[in-house]
Amino acid sequence: MAYAAETIAPRLKKAREQKGLSQRALSAKTGIPQAKISKIENGVIDLRLSTLIELARNLDLDLMLVPRKSVPAVQAIIGSDAGGGSSQPDQIKPAYSLDDDEERDDV
Amino acid sequence: MAYAAETIAPRLKKAREQKGLSQRALSAKTGIPQAKISKIENGVIDLRLSTLIELARNLDLDLMLVPRKSVPAVQAIIGSDAGGGSSQPDQIKPAYSLDDDEERDDV
DNA sequence: AAAATTGATATCCTAAAAGATATCTAATGG
DNA sequence: CCATTAGATATCTTTTAGGATATCAATTTT
Known about the structure:
Two copies of one chain form a homodimer. By secondary structure, chain A is mostly helical. Chain A is built from five helices and one strand, in the order H-H-H-H-E-H. Chain A has helices spanning about 5-20, 25-30, 35-40, 50-55, 70-80; one strand at about 60-65. In chain A, helix 2 crosses helix 3 (about 35-40). The longest helix of chain A has 16 residues, at about 5-20. The model of chain A is unreliable at about 85-105 (pLDDT under 50). The interface between A and B is large, with 40 and 40 residues. Strand 1 (about 60-65) of chain A pairs antiparallel with strand 1 (about 60-65) of chain B, so a sheet runs across the interface. Chain B binds a DNA duplex through helix 3.
């Protein structure tokens, strides 16, 4: 497996965490079972392109083929906020609790 | 299948052609059977990540996950020479045999 | 015209991803 | 202390990619 494989899985995991999503939450969004997300993030399985794209899509990421010579330039761009704030936090990590089924008793 | 899937296959094909490689030549380089390369380029199969990376590697391309918000910027960069000259032609294209164009009259 | 290349397809078999479920442990929280 | 949540694993079945080969039609080359 080429090196890109080792770099993609961690990026997916990081993006998910930065969006404040649990594997199960992402599973619900994507339809991809939590067990599989776990394996993917740990590089246990060699997932298919459609699966990768589906995951990426739900994490506001896009899969691109970049000419080798342009990689540094691209990294300079995405490196600055690489998966950083992404678009919208989607979920800012509730300090209290509420997820969506629990009422807020403190506001 | 997300849209990225439709965009990746053609890019692989274009990159291969621009490097002057036949499917069989690429097959020899990668070990991936020609029959499969054909299917991949035509979007007939949902290839695995390792396969995609292997193909990309041999075409001087790198697979990257780009934050959606950065996609336009990245496209601006790689768009200018997207899969263009890449690194080295890999195949020096015999001037006499002319396999591309016949503009050999003015240099 | 005959020969060689190129890309697309087809079949057979095998390996592995995918999908559905169920646990198990560790950490969190009421 | 018990309940919930999160992530990692395991098992079972189905589906499909992957590997090996062969062939065919359309070009291209000689």
